[in-house]
């Protein structure tokens, strides 16, 4: 049988630090990348990036604000 470990001795990750580290962030915006509206490339973690419509990005309140993101062609020119 397994050994009993009192709860006070269990390492619990800091939930605030974890949520900040995993917070989705906008990388760049793309003109008309989502049908008839602009889109944003969002990084969810080190392995996952997805495109979202501008309206959905704003609705979810992701950071940085949509208007502060560089356009896709601007990020490619700076790379």
Describe the structure.
By secondary structure, the chain is an alpha+beta fold. The chain has one domain (14-78). Helices cover 27% and strands 32% of the residues. The chain is built from 3 helices and 3 strands. The protein has helices at residues 15-21, 54-60, 72-78; strands at residues 25-34, 37-45, 48-53. It has a 3-stranded antiparallel β-sheet with strand order 1-2-3. β1 and β2 form a beta hairpin. It starts with 14 loop residues before the first helix and ends with a helix. The mean pLDDT is 82.
List keywords for this structure.
79 residues; alpha+beta; 3 helices; 3 strands
In brief:
With 79 residues, the protein is α+β, with helices and mostly antiparallel strands. It has 3 helices and 3 strands, in the order αβββαα. A hairpin with a 2-residue loop joins strand 1 and strand 2.
Our measurement of the CA-to-CA distance between the termini, rounded to an integer number of angstroms, reads: 56 Å
- In spatial order, strands of the major sheet run 1-2-3
Structural class based on helices, strands and sheet pairing: alpha+beta
Mean model confidence by pLDDT: 82
Q: Strand-and-helix sequence, N→C? A: HEEEHH
- Count of structural domains: 1
Shape: globular
Low-confidence stretches: none
- In percent terms, what proportion of residues is strand? 25-35%
- What is the number of helical segments per DSSP (H or I, 4+ residues)? 3
Radius of gyration: 19 Å
User: What is the percent of helical residues?
Assistant: 25-40%
* Strands, count: 3
* Most strands sheet: 3 strands, antiparallel
């Amino acid at each position: 049988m397994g050994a009993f470990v009192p709860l006070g001795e269990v390492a619990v990750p800091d939930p605030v630090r974890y949520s900040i580290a995993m917070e989705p962030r906008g990388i760049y915006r793309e003109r008309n990348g989502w049908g008839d509206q602009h889109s944003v490339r969002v990084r969810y973690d080190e392995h996952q990036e997805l495109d979202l419509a501008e309206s959905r990005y704003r609705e979810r309140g992701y950071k940085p604000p949509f208007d502060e993101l560089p356009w896709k062609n601007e990020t490619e020119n700076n790379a």
